Amino acid sequence: MNFFFGKNIPSVLLMSLVILANAQRRDVGRSKKYSPPPFEADLEPSGYNQCSSCNDDDLGVTRWTMPLLKSGEKKYYLGIFFKANWFKAQQYCRFHGMHLASISSQQENDKLEQYVKDSGFGREHFWTSGTDLAEEGSFFWMANGRPLTFVNWNAGEPNNFRYENGEEENCLELWNRDDKGLKWNDSPCSFETFFICEVRSD
Ligand SMILES: [Ca+2]
Ligand SMILES: [Ca+2]
């Protein structure tokens, strides 16, 4: 008993302290090695929203959280990663703080056409927010609740074609049907295709 609790006590204590200190040193080293890097926002909270690196490219596309095509007061987003029916496309845009697109001038249509072509999706169909679901034949933009003020229908459209299952065409898509440019067509809202969202500044 004296061996442990007699004159050897100081040396036992000393050894324990040395072991403990070494263990702590290892823990300190380990915690430094595996600490996650701090978020940028934590480092520079004031610079987080300044978008210092979101320069426009030749098309006027802003790249920050999402690539957006600038067109006057609007910004457009191309939904090209999955196809969705008109309602789901609407939901996607709204979830991200946008609307399905509206087009109010030839200039906007031309800019979108160029953007779609340059993005490699010139043969695809794209939903807009145009619809005559509320009243057959009276199209308006869900994006702003207004009737169409500019139209760019393809020849023979809108034709409200009736399918075998009884569904008619009530949603407005953009489609370069016969190389005459990105014209408009009414299409069944249940069809799944790409879509265009817009950000409005008004
Ligand atoms: Ca219709
Ligand atoms: Ca049609």
UniProtKB/TrEMBL annotation:
It comes from the Eukaryota. Pfam families: Lectin_C (PF00059). Residues 71-198 form the C-type lectin domain. Keywords: Disulfide bond, Signal. Residues 1-23 form the signal peptide. Transmembrane segments: none annotated. InterPro entries: C-type_lectin-like, C-type_lectin-like/link_sf, C-type_lectin/snaclec_domain, C-type_lectin_CS, CTDL_fold. PANTHER family: MANNOSE, PHOSPHOLIPASE, LECTIN RECEPTOR RELATED. This is C-type lectin domain-containing protein. The lineage of its organism: Eukaryota, Metazoa, Ecdysozoa, Arthropoda, Hexapoda.
